[in-house]
Write a structure and sequence with these properties.
single chain, 97 residues, mainly alpha, 56% helix, 0% strand, elongated
């Protein structure tokens, strides 16, 4: 069971780092299920009404998924924008261009 052993080793490394450095003061999670976000649908080329986005008259969940899957660039732009905002505003690390 290499998987269980490596997982145990990773847990041990995390606990030893916590004992040495201390607990993290900030946690954030990126949600990969961004198909529900109206901006991703907008970036994928679908004209939407933000007031009616979750109404039944707009695209269904499967319709949104298909629309976004056809335009991978929209997904990349959306994720990049979110990660960039986290680093720029939350962590105050600006990109040096």
């Amino acid at each position: 069971m290499a998987f269980g052993h490596s997982r145990t080793m990773q847990k041990d490394q995390i606990f030893s780092m916590i004992n040495f450095i201390g607990t993290p003061s900030l946690f954030f999670t990126l949600n990969p299920r961004f198909i529900h976000h109206p901006l991703v649908v907008l970036l994928s080329g679908q004209n939407i009404n933000f007031d009616l986005f979750y109404d039944t008259k707009m695209l269904t969940k499967n319709g949104r998924s298909k629309q976004i899957a056809m335009n991978l660039k929209a997904q990349a732009i959306f994720v990049h924008t979110h990660v960039d905002a986290i680093f720029t505003y939350m962590l105050q690390m600006k990109d040096k261009k």
